[in-house]
Amino acid sequence: MALELVNSKLRLYLSTDHSTHRKFYWFELKENDLYWGSSAFTKEEFCTLEPKTSNSFSIQTSNDFKKLKLSKIKYSYHQSGQFHLKRLTDGRYQAKEIKAIWNKKDEILKPLRIYSLITKPFFNYPIENKKLTRDGSSGRAILLEGKAGFNRLFMEFFITPLGEHPLPEPLINFGKIKFSYINRPLSSELVLITRYIKLANLENWHPDNEIIFLGCLNENCAQ
Questions:
Q1: Rounded CA gap, 65 and 12, in Å?
Q2: What contacts 129, CB < 8 A, 6 or more positions away?
Q3: Strand 190-199 relative to strand 152-161: parallel, antiparallel, unpaired?
Q4: First CA to last CA across the chain, in angstroms?
Q5: Residue 1 lies inside a defined structural domain of this protein
Q6: In a domain, 219, yes or no
Q7: d(C-alpha 116, C-alpha 104), whole Å
């Protein structure tokens, strides 16, 4: 598969009809450093998963969901292997809140899970009124129409080198239900893979919160 060199921003949208696109996430490769974050202010909580049985799990968190405030975070994964996040405060992305050392980018030999989350119900994201591909960026939308717009998604994001590589098992076991995929070249060597699956019957469970699982903070990232 031939891949062009891509060094622009990718904007992901959640759409509740073919003309209504809602702000979600962006990803951008700047030289050898990857940045991503939410396109709108939201309430997010970092959680861990604890398997209970082969098809059930519990979500563990140290904070009270009811006390969360709206915020916006920028994540970054650098060529050196350093990962960190900064939260937008007073119009600027301020001090690093979480820091970790992942694999150096040129040492990625297999798919590396960098980010996973349970979205809010689609209707809880703000509508994007600007051009979807502004500033030279590309845009991709995930569509859930009608009542499905009250559903959420479970999503996982991977960086992988070119070639055929099996993806790790999902953090949540969905049995035989199949994921959908979005593949996006970041450079001539690396691809961003997004896989997602619809979650129904969760529209009333903390509907204004995103539930985030950060890859490699609690996993073995060594190749």
A1: 25
A2: none
A3: antiparallel
A4: 24
A5: no
A6: no
A7: 20
Eight-state DSSP code of residue 184: E
**Which span out of 13-17, 43-47, 54-58, 201-205 was modeled with the highest average pLDDT?**
13-17
Q: Which domain holds residue 209?
A: 9-214
CA distance 136 to 112: 27
Measured from the Cβ of residue 203, the count of other Cβ atoms closer than 10 Å reads 17
Read off the pLDDT of residues 94-124 as tens digits, 9 standing for 90 and up.
767 777 888 887 888 899 999 999 999 999 9
Domain membership of residue 166 (yes or no) is yes
Spatial CA neighbour of 1 closest among 139, 143, 193, 142: 193
pTM (two decimals): 0.86
Tell me the backbone φ, ψ of residue 136, rounded to 5 degrees: 75, 10
Calculate mean pLDDT across residues 53-58: 65
What's the CA gap between 148 and 23, in Å, rounded?
A: 17
CB proximity list for 199: less than 8 A, separation 6 or greater: 118, 151, 152, 153, 154
Where residue 144 falls among pLDDT bands split at 50, 70, 90?
very high
User: Per the structure, how many domains does the chain have?
Assistant: 1
Residue 117 lies in a domain: yes
Alpha-carbon dihedral sign for residues 28, 115, 205, 121: positive
